[in-house]
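Quick one - inputs below.
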Amino acid sequence: MTTMTIAKAINEGLRATLGNNPRTLLMGEDIGPLGGVYRVTDGLIGEFGADRVVDTPLAESGIIGTAIGLALSGYLPVCEIQFDGFVFPGFNQITTQLAKMHSRSNGNLTVPVVIRIPYGGGIGSIEHHSESPEALFAHTAGLRIITPSNPHDAYWMIQQAVDCLDPVIVFEPKRRYWLKGEVDTDSPGQSADPFKAHVLREGSDATVVAYGPLVPVALAAASAAVEDGHSVEVIDLRSISPIDFDTVTASVRKTGRLIVAHEAPTFGGIGGEIAARVSERAFHSLEAPVIRVGGFHMPYPVAKVEEDYLPDIDRILEALERALAY
Amino acid sequence: MGATHLPSTEFDGTEVDDQLEAQAEAVLGDPAVPMVQLLGPDGTLGSDPVFSEYAARLDAGKLRGFYADMAKIRRFDVEATALQRQGQLALWVPLTGQEAAQIGSGRASQPQDYIFPTYREHGVALTRNVDLAELLRQFRGVSNGGWNPKDTNFHLYTLVLAAQTPHAVGYAMGIQRDQKLAAAQAAAGEAPAGSQEPKAAVMVYFGDGASSEGDVHESMVFAASYNAPVVFFCQNNHWAISVPTAVQTRIPLSNRAKGYGFPGIRVDGNDVIAVHAVTEWALERAREGKSPVLIEAFTYRVGAHTTADDPTKYRGSDEEAQWRAKDPLERLEKYLRAEGLADDAFFEQVRADGDELAAYVRSTIHDLGTPDIRTAFANTYAEAHPLVAEELAWFEEYSAGFADEAEPADTEAAN
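Output:
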């Protein structure tokens, strides 16, 4: 066990995958000598060279598009998109090409491209640097989407993404990059399957599902709820596509109440999908409607008011009170 | 009023404007940019300081082969158009007029090269040994692909314009890395020296319309930055559905290469000998790691954009007539006959072969299969996926319900 931050854990995960397979390569803007704007690739170009850690032209469609070509020629590219709000110039390549290549080739071609996207707000940044666009990608069949909430998962998930034959987007919770935790670099242990949700805290009155940056918030809300006499179960979803509905449904059968929290706007979001599936699977177990806690239907607001936008402990507790009122 | 800080009335900017205009003209260059042409429309072979040497490599057999290929693919085009009109294909994308651009370039590629087509490269597909009946799968609506690109190094058609251009550059970047890995293995004694595969390059096709897409720009930037072994083959067929090339570009498209820092060449796209020569030169250059190359094949889409199009709404028949006079097949036939390289029997045989291909395609089209949506479930992901599995299970159960209903009906009918 080693203690490290999420950023360092991803760095070590990338180092491991570069070391294990000569066909793995990293590509992105400023990921070379600078080590990326968040220093996630720090030191890797020195160790593996400029053919394996590729500073690209400033062109997101070009990054994803050339990564597809590299994957078709047998390589395992890991692309860094600098910020969530800058993925859209590459959206066409991701949704019309990357997601469909396996299907349209009748299974003859695989494109094991990994796309890393730092996402989410809470860092006081300027426009386009704090967004959570995961639902836009989750709606696209052919892609897989995972998001770590702690260093151990971060270390293993990036390697599991590279090993996966399908394209995988790894949404990295940028405001948690400096969150420290224990990492077992010898074994993934419980994290062997990146597409499985984890029950982080057992409870009996309600379930809170969260992922990425809101997992620590959900855990803090569950602790606070104890003071009010409520026992809250917390699930770290970990995978946004596919979603581990079995774990979520099993929890709801036990608690009878479900709150889903994410930074992304609730309308058309992952919370709505979970609410619908759970109501189909466990309608008679539900004591209350599924309640979503998330962003408002507005462009991500200016930094000075993001505190009012982002779900926090109180917003989750308020949702809990509403659920318990039924 | 001593308004000395105001510009003098004598300075009206006209002179500066004129200078800038002159500079702009110089940058734009001569619109009549030199075009490599070896075989003229009249069937006579000219010369070129660089490319005549390449043309000299072509023996009579190869030239006859070019003609046979062009005639075959034109016959196929006619047949596919007819099949669309008869409801056997949902859509057809005709290539007539562009045979020389496609056969000349495709025949210049080598088996180890990898080709990324757009969606009109039926002639290139022929040169890569793609089964032309299989090629119709996509247009019949039974597959979004139709052939396995690994068998022929001819990638699937890409319908999102220019989206394949960065794929080509990425593939070329993979070739660069393959060569380095192989060299490193040889140096480490893990593989015998000189055992490397023959050097490969990538060629990617797109049109004058697609040249406006951002992906072409980004691809050329990447290709130049990494000196990727890739040839950009632009068929300027003069029309992007109904919009003329002048709307896509104010300069010859081949000139754009200068802005990226690699050679650009305009070639007569209806001259199969010149297209072959220029492409062979470009691919050799790319394989040797000298630079990417942009080739602009100056040609013409004689027919419609697709079978859903009506060119009479946007262009005149006189323009079409002018281009028909530059027909790629006629000029090669004239040359072959004048030089005594092919006789009546050869051209008869070519016609018979074309009819045979057409008959094969027509008889095979019904055997292209009826797709099963289970294939789509199976191929959405390469690895097992719980949502796909759940939806497939539901679909099977749902479908089975109809099977139960069908049984009593059958029994009734039997009674």
